[in-house]
Amino acid sequence: MWYDDLKEQKLCAIFNELSRIPRESGNEEGIRNFLLSWCKEHGLEAERDEIGNVIIHVPATKGHESAPSLAFQGHMDMVCVKRPGSKHDFGKDPIEIIREGNIIRAKDTTLGGDNGIAIAMMLDIFTDESLEHGPLEGIITIEEETGLKGAFNIDKEKVRSRLLLNLDSEEEGIIYIGCAGGLDMTSTHPVTYVDNPFGHTYELSVSGLLGGHSGGDIHKERGNAIKIASRVLSSFDDDYAISSFSAGTKRNVIPSSATVKVSTDGDLSKCVDKVYGEVGNELKHSDGNVVISIREIQNADKVVNCGESREIIELVYVSPYAVNHMSSAIKGIVETSNNIAIATLDEEKFTLINSIRSNIGSAKEDLARKLGMLYAKYGFASVFGDGYPEWEPNLDSKFLRIVKEVFKKTYGKDPVVTAIHAGLECGILNKRIEGMDSISIGPNLFDVHSVDEHIEIDSLERTIAFVRNIVKSL
Asked: Which residues contact residue 100 at a Cβ distance below 8 angstroms, ignoring those fewer than 6 apart?
């Protein structure tokens, strides 16, 4: 196996086993049953709460019963994205892990390191007979990627710990003590289909983009396929009408591809070539493999009328995307952003889904209000989700002081203590469970929520050593 010669062979074997179990958000019964059976097999107490989270209780080793209880936390679901043309079925097929030197990745799909690696680290710790520890817990939630359902509905009476180590971060050497809150906005524009007045229909495609996590990667100036497709059509002076628009997979993923069917009698190819050259130059240092292409296809019978088509495209083009404001409190992190995540056209309406994030609640609400007003000017009606709360930093935390000391002893240097623009479950759990004190760490993961997701093996090995030292320090 790919892990046979690795130092952390047991941890990686557990991760490999988890990767064989389909666990897309909402399809978590298999991974939940595995966790409950695994705990029973290893003599650990585990229970499922009403919503479907799994909570594991591990007794202290002899002589350490009075130590404070520490909970490890992660989520059992993963974002499922595959390369165009891949026949992988996330409902039944295992993730195929490929090792390339110091990294592991998946063949043509997301890896699921976010957040399967957290579960693997937990189960490894819980069965480490050489590790002396106080009481431990594992809190493994459902549907984190699609609305944080598990964290919002956690049965707090089943959680005994008041120290929480979240293992859902993706940068070694950084201790996170805060995160952004988020809010989804679903906007729809009614459409009227008419007989196609044009003689030609083209398929406009945008592909080759990196995509990535709309929180962790939003500041990296990567291309958004929805925005690029709208840029092409908004700069086209001739009349046109759309009959299909498909882009984006998840609200928290930067869309890496888009396909639009557009009818016209004008020469769309010149416009494509012009924008392709501009975008290729603009993204050459941040997202250099973008491809914009068109091909003529069978002429569409029905299209969205020209006025509505242009109104929709122009709204997408002018809508704010990416970083809105950088933090003035913690230098170097994004405070507020917006991801234009998903665009679809059906028989009745065009739908656009935005994911708004901010580390400040009022800034999140303000950006949502601005977007709603802008969209209304272009004939869109917007509905806002309930969202999730931001996690406010506590620099006076005793737990933070201990973890910082352990980090310095483990690594020989001070950690970076900061907040993250991505959403973490800590904010919700802190509000749900009175007195909870949380910290988030993790190994180096790259390009999560994309088919290029990968983990650095040596970073994973150092991180699990750090985690073991935290356990011993308590």
From this structure: none
